[in-house]
Amino acid sequence: MLLTTEEFLAKIDRFLDDVGMTDGDFGRTACNNTKFLVRLRAGVRRGTGSVKLDMANYLTEWMREYKEHRREERKQMREAAREAREARRARKTAAE
Predict the structure, then answer these.
(1) How does the average pLDDT of the chain come out, rounded?
(2) Where are the domains of the chain?
């Protein structure tokens, strides 16, 4: 499914909202260009902005992988917190 540039920007904006990332952070981490979104938005306003298909595919995959990585990271953090609670309970029980 091909998206217009405006639709693609909306998809990126939803991603940014979901993960709490700024435009500059997105550009820096996704494509090593902190001005990527600023320039793309400016081009869209002028009617000249567009994203090549290979870049759109790359960024779409990058966003998917980033979310998956974050999901795994949160899972590991929850597991570590659970283990820490269990260890505190065990120490408390042993002390009694």
Answers:
(1) 88
(2) 5-95
